Amino acid sequence: MSRQGWMGLLALALLASSASVARANAGDVVGFGSESIARGGAMTAATDGAEALHYNPAGLIAAERAELSVGYMRFLSTLSWTGVTAGVSESHDADISQPDSVTIGLVVPLGRIAVGAYISTLTNKLLALRIDTTTAPTFGYYANRTQRIVVLLGAAIDLGHGLSIGGGLNIFGGVDGLVLASEGPTRDVEPGIFIGDDTALSGQLGLRLEVNDDLRLGLAYRHRFRVPVKIQSDSTVGNVPLNITFVVDGLQTPYELAAGGALNVGAVELSLDATWSRWRNLRAPWVDVDTIVTGLPIESPPVPRAFRDTVSLRAGAQLQQNLAEQWTIFYRAGARFETSMGTSQTGQTSMLDGNKLGVAAGLGLRFGNFYGLPVTADVHFSMDHMFSRTHIKDMDSGSGYDQVSGGGEVMTFGLTLTLGLTQ
User: Is the peptide bond before 240 cis (omega within 30 degrees of 0)?
Assistant: First the structure.
């Protein structure tokens, strides 16, 4: 490749500042476990299984017995966007790639202490990476947050007087690598690509208070996490050194603070959660490019601020009906509303996430005759409606559109099987 060709690629890289990225796990979007999802995710004070590692680690202490759970969930999407240029419109679907995920959970109570582990991953890979152009319209809440393995480990301690405290670690991977390219004997470019990964940690903390037999309160803090992606290209073409570093913050999830309550009214359990998510200081999902050409450093423009804080409200209900001595059925329903985390965007970028209204429902069946051990089967269906969002572009935005709008629905269905390891 000629020197002019390499310089052209460099110019394209600097201008593209591509949208990326490694994607987060499905649980970060709709929650973990069919019971919890069916109840709208209002589980800060109600959770008591391995899923507590996500909702509120202090809930581990409420587990009645050691339990092992396995689950499956699938995404369905009708998200789409329309771009208008000079009065001519074009429409595109925005499907969620890699829509399937599986989970394994374990919780073990040990007197005044309980420990747990939870793993959720895609069915055919551990991590998915994707790069789009900066001008490509996107639904960042869903498309960039459904595709990675997540490993949660934690424990809870009963402090007495109905108060418990818990903590957990969110373990995830990053991507680091090096691209080398130089002219071979025939003056053709001979590339070498070396990609590796590393491990990063994030934490969760929770408090749970049993006020009495019917009322519980919960408070949970989830620390921000991200998957760092860094690829460095060191090349020499025509005796001209060309060094390019691509840096991306993928799988961005904000600091979150959730408070909730759960109330038993006869055979019905009601739950309510409120969550504040601090999105505003997150880096937008676009690549930083730093370059050195013959000793001259060139940096990409500042990454645009595309996020703002959100507030979500979640409500859930569960009705328990005893069918026989060892058979119990649970009827569940839930709803949630969350404000948009995207700012108004009149320039190149088009993050189309609007406010979201979701509903969910599900059933659970518990029976206790599997070799004398209790077994619970839970199913759920959820649907989030994303209200349409429209960005009117500046004349010199460089986005390729005068106006971009989008919205639609994201649905999930799933099954979770839980086996009690003791009676």
Answer: no
